[in-house]
Model the fold of this input.
Amino acid sequence: MRIVVGLAFIIILASLASALFYLMRDKGTSNKTVNALTVRIGLSVALFLFLLFAHWMGWIEATGIR
Done:
Protein backbone atom coordinates (compact mmCIF):
# COMPACT_ATOMS: atom_id res chain seq x y z
CA MET A 1 0.00 0.00 0.00
CA ARG A 2 2.89 2.36 0.76
CA ILE A 3 4.27 1.82 -2.72
CA VAL A 4 0.93 2.66 -4.36
CA VAL A 5 0.50 5.84 -2.32
CA GLY A 6 4.14 6.82 -2.87
CA LEU A 7 3.82 6.37 -6.63
CA ALA A 8 0.62 8.41 -6.62
CA PHE A 9 2.39 11.25 -4.80
CA ILE A 10 5.26 11.14 -7.29
CA ILE A 11 2.84 11.27 -10.23
CA ILE A 12 0.97 14.18 -8.63
CA LEU A 13 4.23 16.08 -8.13
CA ALA A 14 5.25 15.33 -11.73
CA SER A 15 1.97 16.78 -12.94
CA LEU A 16 2.56 19.88 -10.83
CA ALA A 17 6.08 20.21 -12.25
CA SER A 18 4.77 19.91 -15.80
CA ALA A 19 2.24 22.65 -15.09
CA LEU A 20 5.07 24.90 -13.90
CA PHE A 21 7.09 24.03 -17.01
CA TYR A 22 4.20 24.89 -19.32
CA LEU A 23 3.50 28.08 -17.38
CA MET A 24 7.06 29.27 -17.87
CA ARG A 25 7.41 28.00 -21.43
CA ASP A 26 4.09 29.06 -23.00
CA LYS A 27 3.58 32.28 -21.01
CA GLY A 28 -0.12 31.44 -20.73
CA THR A 29 -0.83 31.25 -24.46
CA SER A 30 -2.11 27.64 -24.40
CA ASN A 31 -4.26 25.46 -22.18
CA LYS A 32 -1.43 23.05 -21.30
CA THR A 33 -1.00 24.56 -17.83
CA VAL A 34 -4.71 24.30 -17.08
CA ASN A 35 -4.80 20.72 -18.35
CA ALA A 36 -1.81 19.71 -16.20
CA LEU A 37 -3.38 21.28 -13.11
CA THR A 38 -6.69 19.58 -13.89
CA VAL A 39 -4.90 16.23 -14.06
CA ARG A 40 -3.22 16.98 -10.72
CA ILE A 41 -6.54 17.75 -9.06
CA GLY A 42 -8.11 14.62 -10.52
CA LEU A 43 -5.24 12.46 -9.30
CA SER A 44 -5.40 14.01 -5.83
CA VAL A 45 -9.14 13.36 -5.54
CA ALA A 46 -8.69 9.81 -6.86
CA LEU A 47 -5.95 9.14 -4.29
CA PHE A 48 -8.15 10.47 -1.48
CA LEU A 49 -11.09 8.31 -2.58
CA PHE A 50 -8.80 5.29 -2.92
CA LEU A 51 -7.52 5.81 0.64
CA LEU A 52 -11.09 6.02 1.94
CA PHE A 53 -11.98 2.84 0.05
CA ALA A 54 -8.87 1.03 1.30
CA HIS A 55 -9.74 1.97 4.87
CA TRP A 56 -13.32 0.79 4.39
CA MET A 57 -12.10 -2.53 2.94
CA GLY A 58 -9.68 -2.99 5.85
CA TRP A 59 -6.54 -2.86 3.72
CA ILE A 60 -5.19 -0.02 5.88
CA GLU A 61 -5.88 0.83 9.49
CA ALA A 62 -5.97 4.14 11.29
CA THR A 63 -3.27 4.39 13.94
CA GLY A 64 -4.55 7.50 15.70
CA ILE A 65 -2.61 10.15 17.56
CA ARG A 66 -1.36 9.15 20.99
